[in-house]
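Reader question, answered in our methods column.
A reader sent in the components of a multi-part assembly and asked whether the whole thing could be modeled at once rather than chain by chain. We filled in our standard form and ran it. Here is what they sent:
COMPLEX SIZE: two components
ENTRIES:
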Amino acid sequence: MSAAGWPAAVDVREVALRDGLQIEQPISTGAKIELLEAIVATGVRRIEATAFVSPRAVPAMADAEEVATHALGIDGVEWSALVASPGGARRAVDAGLRTIEYVVSAADGHSLANVRRTTEEAVAAIDEIAATVHGVGGRLEVIIATAWDCPFDGPTPIARTVSVARRARERGADQLCLGDTIGTTSPARVITLVEAVRSVLGPVDLGAHFHNTRGTGIASACAALQAGVTRLDASVGGLGGCPFAPGASGNIATEELLYLLDDAGVDTGLDAAATLAAAASAQRLLGHPLESNLLRAGGRSRPRGRAD
Amino acid sequence: MSAAGWPAAVDVREVALRDGLQIEQPISTGAKIELLEAIVATGVRRIEATAFVSPRAVPAMADAEEVATHALGIDGVEWSALVASPGGARRAVDAGLRTIEYVVSAADGHSLANVRRTTEEAVAAIDEIAATVHGVGGRLEVIIATAWDCPFDGPTPIARTVSVARRARERGADQLCLGDTIGTTSPARVITLVEAVRSVLGPVDLGAHFHNTRGTGIASACAALQAGVTRLDASVGGLGGCPFAPGASGNIATEELLYLLDDAGVDTGLDAAATLAAAASAQRLLGHPLESNLLRAGGRSRPRGRAD
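And here is the structure of the entire assembly that came back:
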């Protein structure tokens, strides 16, 4: 049983293979498959396998079809892929994916820099993407990037993020995810935004995606759970963030999130030792130290299942 | 006004000069004074200046008297020092300190390794220390080390930590602090222990001290505030933890804690820019990268006082 104030279960999506790898120097498809299999061994139920985006813009995702084919041969996992355009959605569906994440930036500055479209234009494209995904019986998630802050436009007005959320759902999004793209939010702001979205959309299925860039990612994830979010993205090793770009930091580390959820008696389906092993694999395959403090320190020894 | 669920104010104690420096290679007293002054400039109201402990055991604290003399020449701050024995308390009081922290390990394993006394023996010494401190009109805090876990004995039974807390107060402790000495606790366990202490001791003035060794320190600090703790230790730059000892990590970083408290509208008296500057000073004076993600990334630009 989970501790007071915690949900019984949290639905973790492992994003190391996409968000984790996309700004790294490309690693071989073989190395990705090795990491993918280590991640499958953690027991996680949802895995973001790759992104169907321009190989010129994101060379690390150039092997999307190959990775997807391998992934879809493994049962028991809900595999997803990120897309940034109707063409990407078509590619993902053709590759066999049935859970598609389409990213829309709530701020024009980031949207223009990322996909050369305004937020309005990106929202308008949901129609075509939803038709593509639903046409094959798939499921569409809209990830709202820069939901809290934009590196170009500053704080994103809450009304703007809520409006994107509302319109995404109206246009066919089956689920939504709030993305703290540049790792600037914090617990109080998380609660404010989640409550604002829920006050307009009602009890929508809401996920959240945090980076640990200001050290507050795990605390923000806890706040999101308090506010009713039940789906969280995380990345083994805290992968993501370029080691050569001062200031960048990765996603919240799956093993650190799991560490505190296990203590709280929250079910995730993940095994702590296997998750730490996957993080160690990621570090070995990438060839540089990852961000995760837990990976560095190791877990504590404790009787299994105890949450005193 | 603070956001819902947050206290109006949090009383931060800056511990970089003691817990932060004690396992570093000793730096000159001049460098310490420089850091001390950068910390004073943050606006923090309580600063742990040094420790009066064996200079053989902790060479980095050998200049305790000199640092204390300098500190006490600066008004507007409650200066404290850590001691581990009645002799240390006498030295601290003789140096002019009037807020004394006496550390008692709740686990015998850590207590014996740290001070060659069992927990019982360390508790018994509170009488003499309280007499020394109260004899000069001072204030005694008992810090309960290994309040959650001991590196030697494993998880500390809750009843054991609560018993130390109860007896410390009976023997004269004016305030108590729960120490996550090896950085293993997590939000759910924090709430459980704080509630257990409060259920036995009533509305006692309770502080907490977290390390970020498993990446969950800031989340644990938020949980402690939820549970009614209003005093938190933190260290600029996340100082603490030896860079040459794999696995060690420092205290929660003052600037990261402040970042989320500012967003929540919680008053601390600290200035964000000055705190980041103090963290940068610490990093320069120590000569190696510190743990703080925020120090690496920098804060976000935002209108002052806004917590949207």
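What stands out: Strands of chain A lie at 11-14, 46-52, 78-83, 99-105, 139-145, 149-150, 154-155, 175-179, 206-209, 231-234. Chain A has one domain: 11-293.
Send us your own complexes using the same form.
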